[in-house]
Amino acid sequence: MTGTPIRVLLADDQRLVRAAFAMLVESARDMEVVAQAGTGREAVELARAERADLVVMDIRMPDLDGIEATRLIAEDEDLAGVKVLVLTTYDTDEHIIEALRAGASGFLVKDTKPAELLDAIRTVAAGESLLSPGPTSRLIARVLRAPAAPPTGGPEGLSEREREVLTLVARGLNNTEIAESLGLSPLTAKTHVSRIMGKLGARDRAQLVICAYESGLVAPGGGGA
User: Pfam families, from UniProt (predicted)?
Assistant: First the structure.
């Protein structure tokens, strides 16, 4: 292994779940578990104390839920480099959009394969956002029944190609998949995504997804507006 291991903080109120995640993370040569939290408040405190690179955050926790814990971490200037990856059981949890608005860099469902979770940790720790493709449109359709104002701006100032790229981002496609879908090179797709983020003032891909759905560019249910 080369470089410094990714420092991971695990936050989940179930000890057995934390233990399983800890064993998985420690099995990877490029990451380590630096702390474990059983409540949202503890997660915030340990994030400040341990300066983890990434927090794997459960949403439903006692004392302080994962959404508010994520918000406190994202708003703390001293924790500017700490990323949050939310895990959820999407069939019962309707707070993902709130978590993304609060500052989470992405989410995965809890039945994600172990290798995919490790890859997700690497992706988010590297500064990219990650959205679990399968439930993305279905989940967002459920939680946007009473949409708030977009956190960034509308897509009106985007070119037609940029609107196409934004639509695919909202459906959970990564840059390589976007490139294949539109007949572009991966670098060009990445450039489009970066330019869209700049135009909309978005922090990451997660906010792009929120903007696409809340602006009506992508209709709940998966189709374009």
Answer: GerE (PF00196), Response_reg (PF00072)
Domain annotation covers residue 225? yes
pLDDT, position 16: 94
User: Which residue, 224, 225, 168, is CA-closest to 196?
Assistant: 168
Q: Taking Cα atoms as reference points, which of 206, 208, 5 lies closest to residue 108?
A: 206
- The domain tally of the chain equals 2
20 and 90 share one domain: yes
Contact between 56 and 88 under an 8 Å Cβ cutoff? The reply is: no
Tokens standing for residue 207: 């906010």
SS3 153: coil
1 domain-assigned: no
Mean pLDDT calculated for residue range 136-141: 54
Order across the sheet with 106-109: list the strands: 31-37, 6-11, 54-58, 83-88, 106-109, 130-131
As a whole-number percent, the residues of the chain with pLDDT over 70 amount to 82
Indicate the average pLDDT of the chain: 83
Tell me phi and psi for residue 182, to 5 degrees. Answer: -105, 0
How buried is 20 (Cβ within 10 angstroms: 0-12 exposed, 13-18 middle, 19+ buried)? middle
How far, CA to CA in Å, does 25 sit from each of 29, 35, 112, 117, 126? 9, 12, 14, 9, 16
The residues, ordered by sequence, that sit 6+ positions from 145 with a Cβ below 8 Å of its Cβ are: none
Domain boundaries, position 103: 6-132
107: in domain: yes
Q: Identify whether residues 77 and 168 lie together within a single domain.
A: no
Which whole number is the average pLDDT over 102-116? 85
